[in-house]
Amino acid sequence: MTKRIVVTGVGAITSAGTGVEPFWQALMGASHDPSFPMRFDTEGLKSRRVHEVRDIEGARISARKGVGERGMQMAVASVCLAFQNGELESGDVVPERVGVVYGSTLEPIGALSEFQRRVSKEGPRCADPGLFPNTGMSAASCQVSISLGYRAFNTTISNGATAGLDAILYGVNMLLADRADIVAAGGIYPLCYESFLGYMLSGVLSGGSAECAKPFDVERCGTVLGEGGAALLLETYDSAMARGVKPLAEIKGGASVFDPSPKPGYSLRARGATAAMQDALHRSRLRAEEIDLVVANASGDRAADCMESRALLEIFGRANMPAVTAPKATVGECLSASGALHAVVAALALSRSTLPATMNFQQTGNGCRIEPVQNTVCGIPIRNVMVNSYGYLGINTSLVLAAV
Amino acid sequence: MSQPRVVITGIGVLSPIGIGRQAYWDGLVRGENGIREIRGMNTTMHRTHRGGEVADFDGFDAQWSEEELRLGRASKLAIAASQQAWNDSGLADARISPRRIGVACGTTNGESQIFEEEFTSFMNLGSEGIDVRRLEYFPVDVIGASIARRLHVQGPVSTFTTACAAGNYAIGNAADLLRAGAADVMIAGGADMFSQTAFTGFNSLFAVAPECCQPFDRFRRGMCVSEGAAIMTLETLSNAKQRGAHIYAEVLACGISNDAHHATAPHPEGRGAVTAMHNAIREAGIALEDVDYISAHGTGTPANDKVETLAVKRVFGDRAYRIPMSSIKSMLGHTMGAASALEAVACVMAIRHGVIPPTINYREPDPLCDLDYVPNQTRQHTVRIALSNAFAFGGNCSTLILADHARQ
To answer: Would you say residue B353 has pLDDT above 70?
Structure first.
């Protein structure tokens, strides 16, 4: 890259709470099991628990009162929280030079369902015109600009599970092209009954008595859905220095590779996942042995974790495997928000010199040969972190962050 | 430091006025009205009944694989257009590494029909009524992924959902990735199927014209919901020349901005549109006087056409009155995420043929819209540089600038 790009603020809304501190405390081991959702009823379903954002009020306050849908609240709140975290006031920035890019794919399902329900019951002439704009996939991201005034650009990328990381890569490219001075890059996924039901019916959720996500574990039997939003403030290193702020991390490089398997699904040959890490290392000008931590995509999904295990072994080899952590065990599978949440984890790990443990892990197996960090390690210098996101349809994205 | 130049080497189109680049262009030049009585949905209970559809697409043969037959209509439109562009480009003989080929596709409504039908089944029959396998093809990333799977692409793949400007965002991103050296070829454009949700929703806003689309006309009554797909193969000029590719035109720049104003209404002074145009012109390294044609966003709504006219005047000053500006939405209707991609193709063909497609259905001038909208008649006019606007809900504004790559 011709310019150095750094992360100067991070914001997150998760089931652990509002802001990065509750998120970090949950990653450090504060008790955080999935629970029955409060906003919809999962009685009688094979899977019943989720990592639900309980403190949406905190998000609403952070976002400004009166910001409509849940996804919009998460988007606006996560940007506001990132600004606070970066000690940046809205008066410190030129709105025309702040850009916004969000990964968001299934966010409008709640609004679409409500819109459709009313049309089905009362006829199309009774459709709710106030609700219709919220059925658009870009509505939540655009609300960030509408609420906060940021105008350089506003882009929505709907790449599913990799969208959060893809948004960060997009934001980096925008800074390199000098289209903004600061970019808020992130992802959102608000849970609703309809999208929960869809995932449950597809068979990817863990269920029964062992309803929790066990990344890389021999007994993993599916994932647990979570929800949330995350934003990272990105700017050039020179811009951060000029402002007198110490960045949390530097973005060294990243890559996205599409897996050529003839059908959708996590390819157990892991070519795409391996290639994404290879290209990310190459663009970061790093060797595999310079990576100290991997923030894994792993979620307890039988096939996805297997694919990632194989890719990690291809890249690092058993003897030189870096520490691996899998935050989805703590806050669940947050789809388009996950990549951004995991980049936040990477930035915090780097700035706090801490390797977060992975919850629920006991023993690897069943196609996996990865043993994630089981006990948090503090006070350990971390040079470089690899963050992975993989999508069921074949996109594999990896991002490398480094200590500054 | 000069950046690589980006050119277009293949084009694929499916539209309400023709399938295939030539049929589409012939339709535009004829001033064909693609807005008809809607056949794909029952509009009895709706306020309006006309829109744009890709005729007979259900029977269209793109040599679908067994897996592709299960996809939704939007994905199929995208695949069909992409295959046409790929065949047109000659890239199959070029032996470019699949890892160096990527996809950027824009859409607004995605697989709208899958959601509508499965949700209706769910409402009537509960979860037992849901076709779970079919649900897998609903999340919108299926569109970019389906193109990549069809063309055996292994590079970066993205689906942009910046509503009615998504095509421009995809094309702009594709050009950025090529210039940055992240890919050697990008398959880029937009696709949207006729969405019942969009038809119902825009009607609920009283934004749909009952008869036809009349951009800039004094009595314009709104947009016409439509569908289509346009995909182009983009490469660097040097790569295209090296493999002896036929070059259609050059992508100079894509300027983007956001109004930061309102979820549906444009900023009354068009500030996002003005900024997008200025950004595009600056990044393209051209002067205002160099623009020979503007392809308008021109939806036919009272608000858009008035504000777009104002924004063009703010950017070009008096020169605005001498730049022909037409809206092909008058012929196609609003194809949503495909619109700006279809408009980009129209600009490319205008550059190649020195012909500007008209704004049809133009009957009565509006004092607030007093530019040269190329009313009703196709016009012979040399176009070296064309500017194409696309504006979206949420305030997203984009301007794509295309040029004759061989211009002096």
So the answer is: yes
Question: Stretch A273-277: mean pLDDT, rounded?
Answer: 98
Q: Which of A13, A64, A1 is nearest to A186 (CA)?
A: A13
CATH number assigned to the domain with residue range B253-403, chosen from the 4 options 3.20.20.140, 3.40.47.10, 3.40.1190.10, 3.40.605.10: 3.40.47.10
Mutate to test the interface with A, among B67, B141, B154, B259 (most CBs of A within 10 A): B141
Task: Tell me the sheet residues that pair with B14.
Answer: B19, B229
CA pair distance A103, B355, nearest whole angstrom? 40
| A 168-227 residues with CB < 8 A to B | 170, 173, 176-177, 179, 194, 197-198, 201-203
Same domain for A395 and A267: yes
**Same domain (yes/no): A234, A191:** yes
Least confident range from A55-69, B75-89, B227-241: namely A55-69
Range of the domain at A47: 5-243
d(CA A254, CA A260): 20
Q: B397 to chain A nearest CA, in Å? A: 8
Among the listed ranges A264-268, B133-137, B169-173, which one has the minimum average pLDDT value?
Answer: A264-268
Residues of B in contact with A116 (CB under 8 A): 115-116, 119-120, 123, 197
pTM above 0.90, yes or no: yes
- Based on the domain organization, do A116 and A158 belong to the same domain? yes
Distance between CA atoms of B346 and B339, rounded to whole angstroms?
10
Residues of B in contact with A133 (CB under 8 A): 263-264, 393-394
Q: What is the pLDDT averaged over residues B259-264?
A: 95
Q: Which of B45, B136, B395 sits opposite A125 (nearest CB)?
A: B45
| pLDDT above 70 (res B1) | no
What's the rounded Cα separation, in Å, for the pair B172 and B189?
Answer: 10
Query: Burial of A61 by CB count in 10 Å (0-12 exposed, 13-18 middle, 19+ buried)?
Result: middle
Rg (C-alpha) for chain B, rounded Å, is 20
**What are B179-228's pLDDT values in tens digits?**
999 999 999 999 999 999 999 999 999 999 999 999 999 999 999 999 99
CB A154 within 8 A of CB A100: yes
Q: Write the pLDDT tens digit of every residue in B291-341.
A: 999 999 999 999 999 999 999 999 999 999 999 999 999 999 999 999 999
**pLDDT at residue A352 in the model:** 97
The ipTM is 0.98
Distance CA B47, CA A365 (A): 60
Whether A209 has a pLDDT exceeding 80, the answer reads no
SS3 content of chain B, % helix, strand, coil (to 5): 40, 20, 40
> Over chain A, what HEC string results?
CCCCEEEEEEEEEECCEECHHHHHHHHCCCCCCCECCCCCCCCCCCCCCEECCCCHHHHHHHHCCCCCCHHHHHHHHHHHHHHHHCCCCHHHCCHHHEEEEEECCCCCHHHHHHHHHHHHHHCHHHCCCCCHHHHCCCHHHHHHHHHHCCCCEEEEECCHHHHHHHHHHHHHHHHHCCCCCEEEEEEEECCCHHHHHHHHHHCCECCHHHCCCCCCECCCCCECEECEEEEEEEEEHHHHHHHCCCCCEEEEEEEEEECCCCCCCCCCCCHHHHHHHHHHHHHHCCCHHHCCEEECCCCCCHHHHHHHHHHHHHHHCCCCCCEEECCHHHHCECHHHHHHHHHHHHHHHHHHCCECCCCCCCCECCCCCCCCCCCCECCCCCCEEEEEEECCCCEEEEEEEECC
Q: Which of A243, A276, A296 is the last residue of a domain?
A: A243
**CATH number of the B6-249 domain:** 3.40.47.10
Residue in this structure with the two tokens 């295309």, named with its chain if needed: B402
Residues A213 and A295 in one domain: no
